[in-house]
Write a structure and sequence with these properties.
The chain has 18 helices and 9 strands. By secondary structure, it is an alpha+beta fold. It has a 4-stranded antiparallel sheet with strand order 1-2-3-4, with helices on one face. β7 (about 310) and β8 (about 315-320) form a beta hairpin. The longest helix has 27 residues, at about 110-135. About 25% of the residues are buried.
Length: about 475
């Protein structure tokens, strides 16, 4: 490499510097600014460089090409303030800056790499922030469902799907009218960016939904509040949502209102009419299911989910798949078994459906229509399937059955310390009370039945 001090650089001199023949490159040094040089290669590439000494070693840094870097800083003057402003730094001034760094013990190459890394981090942060701002509520909702589904029951998971369903699909069973499904209460929020979800947005949503479908909106609001709390705990959503849960505001609660207390129950005087109408149903499977809902006080979904494998004839018990504890075991009372043993055992389900069972997995769907027909025939208004569960708990008051026994049969959580930690009731004790309850209900309904009528098969006949 050849080169040397060629006096003070000028624009013309810089343009005239060429690499000598036979050499790969040459560096020419400025006589005005120490450390500033021009490197010229054999193929004509040209670049300003700076070279200094740091800790006894030479340090060389490339500044840039002459067609990009002017030799001197370019200034402009603001007409209003008459202040000079730097338009583009010159190579001499950049070399002076680098020399000051070297004199201070700083390696310019390290500083440049650090600045480049900082720029890359800033660019990555901007890109990440842009991606985060593009995240929609639906994106986070699907991630939430995938994360939490292992800890949920099937009903709870289906509630999340239904409340966020976009609607617009044809009903599978409606042949006369091409009616479409209605969008769930949360569907209108799914398309929004997650960054736009704030208290005002949710309050407006609650005001709209609270007028048209308050009960469904209240459940959707509770699901939404838990979802937003989950988002706030996830690192990928940190800083997107407000610090306070935007769903937990008093205006949202007021717009959705409070649920009315449900009081639909069977009275003692209505038992005879109700049993007579239900037993008169043509669908024997539905008739047995409705009677079992009242006789056990179980949730409708728990009764319909019974399998033959859940019936233990040796210990005369039913295993109920409980939404609270996972499962519970209750007595298989005589009349309940009398109802169940007459049903066909074509499938694993006790209450199996013969047609249109794909959606329910082979069992009968919720028999609301049949129950309404039976109640209408009996002259009973407003009694729901869950009202049968409420009726079981209410009617046991006539027998003064301990509240803890009724709660354990129905699958309610213990409501006191003594119930939770000190009372353990075996199946035989539950059977003592449950048998009394069933016998009393049948007596009030005018049904003549004794345990001999159950005619249970031997143990090895259990499914």
């Amino acid at each position: 490499m050849v080169g040397g001090r060629e006096g003070n650089f000028t624009t013309g001199r810089v343009a005239d510097f060429h690499c000598p023949p036979g050499k790969q490159q040459a560096i020419f040094w400025d006589g005005k600014q120490p450390g500033l040089g021009l490197r010229v290669t054999a193929n004509g590439a040209r670049a300003y460089v700076f070279q200094g000494w740091l800790h006894g070693r030479s340090v060389r840094v490339t500044i840039g090409r002459p067609d990009v870097w002017p030799l001197e800083t370019v200034w402009s003057v603001d007409k209003e303030s008459s202040r000079r402003m730097e338009v583009q730094r010159g190579a001499r001034q950049e070399a002076a800056r680098l020399k000051a760094m070297v004199d201070s013990g700083i390696n310019p190459a390290h500083e440049r790499r650090a600045r480049a890394a900082a720029r890359e981090q800033e660019a990555a942060a901007r890109e990440k922030d842009l991606r985060r701002r593009e995240i929609t509520v639906a994106d986070a909702w699907h991630a939430y469902l995938a994360d939490r589904r292992p800890y949920w029951g099937e009903r709870h998971y289906l509630d999340h799907l239904a409340k966020a369903h976009p609607g617009g699909t044809a009903y599978a069973r409606r042949k006369k009218k091409p009616a479409m499904t209605t969008a769930g209460p949360l569907a209108c929020l799914m398309t929004l960016p997650l960054t736009s979800v704030n208290a005002a947005v949710i309050e407006d949503w609650a005001a709209r939904e609270g007028k048209s479908r308050p009960a469904s909106a209240r459940l959707a609001w509770r699901l939404l509040a838990v979802f937003l709390r989950w988002c706030a705990e996830q690192p990928e959503y940190t800083g997107i949502l407000p610090h306070e849960n935007p769903a937990k505001t008093s205006r949202s609660r007021q717009s959705l209102g409070r649920p009315a207390r449900k009081v639909d129950v069977l009275t003692r005087e209505q038992l005879a009419a109700w049993f007579a109408s239900v037993q008169a149903l043509k669908n024997r499977t539905v008739s047995a299911a409705l009677q079992l809902m009242l006789l056990t006080g179980a949730r409708p979904g728990e009764v319909l989910a019974l399998r033959w494998a859940d019936i233990n004839l040796r210990w005369k018990s039913l295993t109920i798949r409980d939404k609270v504890e996972g499962e519970r075991v209750i007595p298989l009372t005589p009349y309940a078994w009398h109802l169940l043993k007459t049903l066909p055992r074509e499938k694993a389900w006790v209450f199996a459906a013969r047609i249109r069972a794909e959606k329910s997995g082979g069992r009968i769907a919720t028999p609301n229509r049949y129950h309404h027909e039976a109640c209408a025939a009996a002259g009973i208004d407003g009694l729901t399937l869950h009202g049968l569960r409420r009726s079981f708990a209410s009617l046991t008051e006539w027998l003064e059955v301990p509240a803890g026994v009724v709660a354990q049969i129905q699958g309610h959580k213990p409501s006191a310390t003594a119930e939770k930690h000190y009372k353990v009731r075996p199946l035989d004790l539950l059977r003592l009370h449950h048998g009394r309850i069933e016998a009393w209900l049948l007596e009030q309904a005018g049904i003549s039945f004794s345990e001999e009528h159950a005619d249970a098969p031997p143990v090895d006949a259990a499914a």
